């Protein structure tokens, strides 16, 4: 894998490399077979100009970042992985997140492919093709979604930061399946202005990188805040492992990697306690009327569906239309139930610095098993629910989480998720730095 942002910036600052050379590497990676279908629009000339114009002393120093197709970029339409918005009016200004990355010296490499309208954790796109996971050149495997192209852009070496969004795991799922780092911050810390919404309650603007230290840098840029560094050793943190839900139905590779990771952390001095989180059992009842994403998604899409519904991915339209039946009192009941549930979860997690879980319970299956087609719809929706199960808990919690690769060299990528409630971002990142070293 190409060196991370920090190592490359050091090379720039010591004149061991320069932004023009690094951008040439990024553009070559973006054009390579490993990045097929990862970009919906490559901005080669613009990126080269921005790279040269940046200062090496800036946080991104002229290095490449990619942007998920649901973010506004001035002068371009914002299709969000669809065809029905392909000819929508061009954005007048960059999304706040895009503007902040550019202001930090980032060079915008291009717009990345995604699940249409961000409504799936699998990463399939029938309009623009599905980018294959980088982990297995012999068998095209799902990239994870919805930030599929963003993950491939980072894992392939094209981009140092892949800007995306996370509503139920859309950063952490592809990060886990491609063996990179994905950090979902507390949602309120990063503005969503200029990002096409899925769920205004759950949407989080965040990014994927190749290391935890790069995740800290990306978060500091996106949130316009400084992360309080944690200098304590791993033994200083109190970590929890949930007995319920998160470890249900793990495939053998994930189970082995998770247990091995816990063992290595314990050997490194980590204090790990198994706990019960009985509030998790209440989530199906709380979301029984469909949850936030279908209802809030339908509110945004209903007129567009009436005009252009035939142009939607049928699987995406099916999920959005589920929101049409939610009644106003059911939505208000959902808001109240979530608030009460968050309070119970926060009290249960308060003694701990972070919780450890598998990010997703499976490794990436072949694309062929869930490719578009009615015969595979059941398999697709089963896989989608399974991929979303663990990470979506954190979105419902209004929390923060990071996924780190924890597989052995001969295994498919597996993600280890560290998570906690809202505004514990700095603690989670501090623990993640120590966990990354130990693994």
Helix run count: 14
| Radius of gyration using CA atoms only | 20 Å
CATH top level of the domain at 5-223 is: Alpha Beta
Fill in the CATH topology of the domain at 5-223: Amidase signature (AS) enzymes
Mean pLDDT across residues: 97
Structural class: alpha/beta
Going across the major beta sheet, what is the strand order?
Answer: 1-3-2-4-6-5-10-11-9-7-8
Order of helices and strands: HHEHEHEHEHEEHEHEHHHHEHEEH
Q: At CATH's second level, what is the architecture of the domain at 5-223?
A: Alpha-Beta Complex
Helix content: 25-40%
What fraction of residues sit in β-strands? 5-15%
- Distance linking N and C termini: 17 Å
Q: Enumerate the spans where pLDDT stays under 50 for 5 or more consecutive residues.
A: none
Shape: globular
The CATH homologous superfamily of the domain at 5-223 corresponds to Amidase signature (AS) domain
Number of strands: 11
Sheet of most strands: 11 strands, mixed
Descriptive report:
Pfam families: Amidase. InterPro entries: Amidase (IPR000120), Amidase_dom (IPR023631), AS_sf (IPR036928). This is Amidase. Strand 7, helix 8 and strand 8 form a beta-alpha-beta unit. Helix 2 runs antiparallel to helix 3, helix 4 packs across helix 7 and helix 7 runs antiparallel to helix 14. It is built from 14 helices and eleven strands. The protein is an alpha/beta fold and 439 residues long. 38% of the residues lie in helices and 13% in strands. Strands 1-3-2-4-6-5-10-11-9-7-8 form an eleven-stranded mixed beta sheet, with helices on both faces. It has a domain of 219 residues: Amidase signature (AS) domain (Amidase signature (AS) enzymes), CATH 3.90.1300.10. It is globular, with a radius of gyration of 20 Å. The two termini are 17 Å apart.
């Amino acid at each position: 894998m190409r060196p991370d942002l920090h190592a490359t910036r050091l090379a720039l600052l010591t004149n061991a490399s320069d932004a023009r050379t690094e951008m040439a590497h990024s553009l070559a990676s973006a054009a390579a077979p490993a990045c097929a279908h990862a970009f919906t629009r490559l901005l080669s000339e613009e990126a080269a100009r921005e790279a040269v114009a940046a200062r090496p002393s800036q946080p991104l120093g002229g290095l490449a970042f990619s942007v998920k197709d649901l973010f506004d970029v001035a002068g371009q339409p914002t299709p969000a992985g669809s065809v029905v918005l392909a000819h929508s009016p061009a954005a007048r200004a960059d999304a706040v997140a895009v503007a902040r990355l550019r202001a930090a010296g980032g060079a915008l490499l291009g717009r990345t492919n995604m699940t249409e309208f961000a409504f799936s954790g699998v990463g399939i796109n029938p309009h623009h093709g599905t980018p294959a996971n980088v982990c297995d050149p012999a068998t095209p495997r799902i990239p994870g979604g919805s930030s599929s192209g963003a993950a491939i852009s980072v894992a392939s070496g094209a981009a140092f930061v892949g800007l995306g969004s996370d509503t139920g795991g859309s950063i952490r799922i592809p990060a886990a399946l491609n063996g990179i780092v994905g950090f979902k911050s507390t949602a309120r810390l990063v503005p969503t202005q200029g990002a096409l919404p899925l769920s205004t309650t759950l949407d989080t603007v965040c990014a994927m990188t190749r290391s935890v230290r790069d995740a800290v840098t990306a978060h500091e840029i996106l949130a316009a805040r400084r992360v309080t560094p944690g200098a304590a050793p791993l033994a200083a943190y109190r970590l929890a492992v949930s007995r319920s839900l998160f470890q249900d139905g793990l495939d053998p590779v994930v189970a082995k990697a998770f247990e091995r990771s816990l063992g290595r952390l314990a050997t490194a001095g980590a204090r790990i306690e198994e706990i019960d989180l009985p509030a998790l059992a209440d989530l199906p009842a709380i979301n029984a009327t469909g949850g936030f994403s279908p209802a809030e998604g339908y509110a945004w899409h209903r007129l567009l569906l009436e005009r252009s519904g035939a142009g939607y991915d049928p699987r995406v339209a099916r999920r959005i239309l589920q929101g049409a039946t939610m009644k106003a009192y059911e939505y208000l009941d959902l808001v109240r139930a979530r608030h009460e549930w968050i309070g119970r979860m926060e009290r249960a997690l308060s003694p701990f610095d972070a919780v450890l879980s598998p990010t997703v319970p499976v490794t990436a299956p072949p694309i062929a098993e869930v490719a578009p087609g009615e015969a595979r719809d059941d398999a697709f929706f089963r896989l989608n629910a399974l991929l979303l199960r663990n990470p979506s808990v954190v979105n419902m919690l209004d929390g923060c989480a990071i996924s780190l690769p924890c597989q052995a060299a001969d295994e498919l990528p597996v993600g280890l998720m560290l998570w906690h409630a809202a505004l514990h971002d700095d603690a989670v990142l501090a623990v993640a730095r120590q966990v990354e070293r130990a693994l």
